[in-house]
Amino acid sequence: MIGRLRGILISKQPPSLLIEVGGVGYDVDAPMSTIYDLPATGKEVTLLTHYAVKEDGVALYGFLRETERAMFRNLLKVSGIGAKIALAVLSGVATDELSRLVHAGDVVALTKIPGIGKKTAERMVVELRDRVDAVGVRLPASTVHGEALPADPAGEATVALQQLGYKPPEAARLVAKVAADGDSAETIIRKALRAALGS
């Protein structure tokens, strides 16, 4: 199946991306950890992908790093975790930090991730403990340069947080709490996720 895409980044509407490869546009969902590090639209990008067959069709998920794709696939093996929640997990927690939380059995910290209740967090600890060691450590995110600011970065960030699993009032509250003049949508999302997780 499709394991990698290399093409032109047409649009970014977190968590969705549109990548044109040979005249064909591919819709790809990606965690914010990948979206933070993407180049500006119109530039070439290479993504590692996970191809999933769902009841209502097929879907592609994209990652800049193999560590993130491997962790995504491990998360999908946990009972009660689907692709949307797996993306939310990777958007809020770096792979090395997730490994640490799992090994520490920190259920309280895991439940701060949208979509993760106590029972799911407990299953993550049990079912992921033997798998996360092989994933490795995620490199720190770099700053994206040359990106034109959208007309309404706060609004874009609010919508993205809702797509990651936050309820509309909570998403709006987080954005209002952290947004500053001149922030891009990606900066606001990054700050909001950190605030939500108490880091």
Short account of what is shown:
Residues 144-199 are annotated as: Domain III. The chain has 199 residues and is an alpha+beta fold.
Describe the structure using short key phrases.
single chain; 199 residues; alpha+beta; 5-stranded antiparallel β-sheet; 9 helices; 5 strands; 42% helix
Task: Report what the structure shows.
Residues 73-92, 108-127 form the Helix-hairpin-helix DNA-binding motif class domain. It contains 9 helices and 5 strands, in the order E-E-E-H-E-E-H-H-H-H-H-H-H-H. The radius of gyration is 16 Å and the shape is globular. It has helices spanning 32-35, 66-76, 83-92, 95-104, 107-110, 118-128, 153-163, 168-178, 185-196; strands at 4-13, 16-21, 24-29, 44-54, 57-63. Helix content is 42%, strand content 20%.
Tell me the number of helical segments per DSSP (H or I, 4 or more residues long). Answer: 9
Number of strands: 5
What structural class do you assign from the helix and strand content? alpha+beta
Cα radius of gyration in angstroms:
16 Å
Strand line-up across the major sheet: 3-2-1-4-5
Subcellular location: Cytoplasm
InterPro entries: DNA_helicase_Holl-junc_RuvA_I, Hlx-hairpin-Hlx_DNA-bd_motif, NA-bd_OB-fold, RuvA, RuvA_2-like, RuvA_C, RuvA_C_sf
Protein name: Holliday junction branch migration complex subunit RuvA
Pfam family, one: RuvA_C
List the helices and strands and how they pair.
Layout: E1 4-13, E2 16-21, E3 24-29, H1 32-35, E4 44-54, E5 57-63, H2 66-76, H3 83-92, H4 95-104, H5 107-110, H6 118-128, H7 153-163, H8 168-178, H9 185-196
Antiparallel strand pairs: 1-2, 1-4, 2-3, 4-5
Helix pairs in contact: 2-3, 4-6, 7-8, 7-9, 8-9
